[in-house]
TrEMBL record:
Residues 157-250 form the Acyl-CoA oxidase/dehydrogenase middle domain. It is an enzyme of class 1 (oxidoreductase). The gene is ACAD8. It catalyses: propanoyl-CoA + oxidized [electron-transfer flavoprotein] + H(+) = acryloyl-CoA + reduced [electron-transfer flavoprotein]; (2S)-2-methylbutanoyl-CoA + oxidized [electron-transfer flavoprotein] + H(+) = (2E)-2-methylbut-2-enoyl-CoA + reduced [electron-transfer flavoprotein]; 2-methylpropanoyl-CoA + oxidized [electron-transfer flavoprotein] + H(+) = 2-methylpropenoyl-CoA + reduced [electron-transfer flavoprotein]. It comes from Pteropus vampyrus (Large flying fox). This is Isobutyryl-CoA dehydrogenase, mitochondrial.
Amino acid sequence: MLRKGCWRLRAQLSFLHRSFQVSKSGHRNLVSCIDPSMGLNEEQKAFQKVAFNFAAQEMAPNMAEWDQKELFPVEMMQKAAQLGFGGVYVRTDVGGSGLSRLDTSIIFEALATGCTSTTAYISIHNMCVWMIDTFGNEEQRHRFCPPLCTMKKFASYCLTEPGSGSNAASLLTSAKQQGDHYILNGSKAFISGAGESDIYIVMCRTGGPGHKGISCIIVEKGTPGLSFGKKEKKVGWNSQPTRAVIFEDCAVPVANRIGNEGQGFIIAMKGLNGGRINIASCSLGAAHASVILTRDYLNTRKQFGAPLASNQYLQFKLADMATRLVASRLIIRSAAVALQEEQENAVALCSMAKLFATDECFAICNQALQMHGGYGYLKDYAVQQYVRDSRVHQIIEGSNEVMRMLISQNLLQI
């Protein structure tokens, strides 16, 4: 249970759910210009409503406790999986929901209003399940995907290493075949869910240097030679553990390799294209929640004998935040459609969406904290958590500096 001092946090978060509703007269309320359902069809509006309701009822009341106590909310995520959120864009024959990339973005944006950190982990889990579903053989799909879609098991993505971050193709974790097993040695860094997850999608070197020597192998928790580093202390993202993943003569069946040898880097990058849209959508949810909280704070807080909402400077700041929010949503949804349709410029558009939206949405959250004044810096107020949880989105799934590289390479046809 939240400590008594967090009643203010509960009160603030109750605003969020009410702010997304339609009045009985059929007219939108005061947030119509940032209404996240604009442009959606009826089916999309329906599952968006389910996601917002779940975020408001199951996530928002607990997000401060998960953050402060660093709790991994397994039961809540399994409830989310019962709604189809464990394998949103995974095929239905293995338990997925079979939805589109746009549908997925809509759902993750809604969930992130309730807890950005936990939604970000759910998005990574979804990316891992999709990789198995898309690149695995039928035996692998039917073995691994069903328990992941129900979140009876959890998955982690293992690409980054202590010495290879942005230059992922230089990774050193090795996998040498001995009979019908690969023997893995090396380590991965900054792995979300590490130690709690049951399935690890590991990029490792089975061949020579460069990206063509990398393969993708599933390592299951409990495999001898698999261990984990200490739980990292982080600024945000505290509802999901982050640890190193260590391989010491870790024997994994060759049957656990996804795709062919040398195909791992391609698989990893294709996973990240969707992951970038997903994480940008999580930033979008944090920013949307922050705009709503700021709007309501300006209407209730008084200074110099008048509500802060009457101050034109603050009105202009709120207008800028709303504009950045809508622009971010549009570029994310455009990129999601491009990826779904496998358009030629999809990689560049995904990179643009991740770059623009994570930068702009963090700026929105940070401005929201500023407009809350001293209260914004207190952990009784939700806005500071949205700031902390969204900051890392400018780094993960490829830093925003790397996004600029990918965009410019596309423009210059390098």
